[in-house]
Give the backbone structure.
Amino acid sequence: MAHSERRPHSTDLACSVRTTIGWFSAQLALAVAGAGITLFGPWPGLGMGLLALVSSLLTLGLGQLPASLAEAANRSGKNQQTRNAAPTLDAEASTKSKAKTVSDSLAIIGLITFVGLIFTVAILPALMALLLLAQLAINLVSADTSRLFYGLMNGFAFLLIGAAESTSGGYLLIMVGYAFCVVMTLSMLWCIQAMTTSQVTRLASSANDQQPHFLLAAEADTPTPGATSRRFNKRFFQPAAATGAALLLVAIAGAIYLFMPRLPAANLGGQLASADSLYDNASWQTQAKRSGQPSPTDPQNLQDDQQSDGPIPLWEGLDPSAPQFDYRGFRDEMNLNDNPYGNQSTTAADLNQVIALMKAPHGSYLKVRTFDHFDGLRWSSSTTAFHKHNTNQQGKVILPGEQENRGNFQQQITIKQGMTAQLPAAGDPVALWLPATVIATDPFGQPLLPAPLKPGTQYTVLSQQQWLDQRPASHAPKPRDNDLQLPYSLDKRIPALARSVTANADTPYAQAQALEQHLRSDYRYSFESALTSQGITPLPSFLFERREGHCEYFASAMVVLLRTLDIPARLVTGFSANQQNPLTGYFEIRGIDGHAWAEAWIDQRWVTFEPTAFYQLPSTTSSSLSADQINDYVDSLSQRQHALPGDSAFSFDQILTTLWNALYLLLILPLSYLLRGIFWLWPLWLVLALVLAIVAAVAYPSRQRWWRTLVGRWVTLRLQRYRAKDPATALTFYQRQLQQLSAACGIQRPPGQPLEVWSQALQDYLLARANQGTAADTSEPEPTAALQQLVALLNTCWYGDPETSTAIQLPETLQPGLIELANRLTARA
């Protein structure tokens, strides 16, 4: 039979090349689309991904790779090569020259684009353009599959760019799709390598005029001569196996992510400060130059600050059609009987939207406004003085009386919905990096911009955080007379309630704790009242009748109760930024996180108290396992969903939450405790490792004997349990098992070695052991007959005509004989 019938057809290889190009281009397009979506938005990112897909398919399809592999597939003999040598070389040289010219042009365009974008846009878009054009240039001159590995590295670089900038957990889907495409690409690359390597071996054997059985015996898995191209491709590439490998890779990565303890974030890098346009105000800059740097609490400067301009109100500074968060607690005055969220059209869905993101080492309360005057219904500030500060060329400003080295908590905040000009920031800001030429600080030290915050604004705040008994504390400014002010018509039951609750407390801190615990345990949080109870729930009604309300009532009640005990207190509004998305690392700030809490002057500091049971004080520590962090995140989302009023029907989010809770309780939680136990018992594992090292050192000199015994028992067990389905599959299984055992005995079968040579080596090995004297019979080992049968049947299966190959019958004595052969090879001498 001609050798050409036993080598892969050129169409088989061409099909594999096209498939590889498709998977390779898909992984590159996914990575580019992910980075583009992260940096520029969904539609521009999808457009970039589509452009990368089409351009990669074109450059690889028109480049040198398909021609080079097709040439290898079609090369079958010296005469054919000689006849076609001259025209083939001329065409190949012309193709390479054109591809090289286009490739060089793309590389030059990439460098020019990189330089242009890095000075006009940003470094990441410039880097993306350079990487993509460089990859297209490489595609055109890739003469073999090895250069595609560089392309995989480029795709991984795009994936890292997107991951570094992503603020959405949906990026995980892009990572999963990318991993799947990479596994399929690597599988196809292996397929092409195996096909071309197999062809080279066959051509070499044909050129040396080897006999057919020597040629085909060199490859144990060669299909029958009449096999179709489908069977040949199936031998090298199995889609089900590749898909399983991809899913296994994703599962392993997921397990590592869920259960491997995570180190705390290093928080390296600079300070972000960007916006679509610079926040600027010439009048403010003039006032900042005139006022200089004295303390804003200096009485001489307070009079000047009273006359200075304030920020532009939210409703005047932003486009009404743009998304904006209008929380009444961020305005100059907050009425308890008004809807806290600006307008009557605010819905629960609106309040569940992400309005800002914070990147920080841990969660925090972000202050926005501080109120010290209460008339029974309305909270306001007793002074509206604003002290102005110019920023430097980088937008940096160090607040008066502060030093940058005092800062210990940096927050990078990204605004998603427009809001008032007051900057959400953790207590006691020291330095700020802002896209602004000038800022102001209010009498309580909180920074603000000349105009409302626009979506897309990014800024960085460095704060000096203090803690008292795991509570945030602030040192500035000191209390004023208004911090003890009470309404003229205060209900007499309120001071009596304060005295009753704090009867057993002997210090201001203990009194504040008692009031906080009383409000958290004896009153019910009802977010719905924030949208439905306007005008019907004054403070006495909340404390003594309804006993439920939203956070503004809890905070107001605690401040008033503290003041009746002569403890200076004030009401603070801002955000509870404690919900961290473990997939992105960002703390998500939603509308429902707009919050009010109380601060009391204790031990020369303003100490934070949280009287609303729905909210928790920020913590500086969290679980190191991603599984626990995800569970906390899901619980937090579920808690907020249940707190918001709306349709109680089962939603898709609730279904996902239920599925996650079931998975967490049944699988993740037990495994996490198991892994924790493993880490806690590290001394035991250390001792066990030392014992294993000693055993390995003792067993190493006799490794050949015990390894042969171990492999022999495994092979024997597999042979005993094997049930033959068809002769061809059974013969291949027997041959592989015996080759594995013979390798453990020191008899390797290198590629290209005929089966007869390997069989004879095994017989000589058994004869030598018999001559040395074994527990078995010293006569001619009978199992060698089963080995000879196996070799003969394999040659018939591989080299016989299709009718003979399909008519093979396995002798009943073959499998028992091979089992006995395995026992003889394993027996001790």
User: Anything to note?
Assistant: The chain has 28 helices and 21 strands.
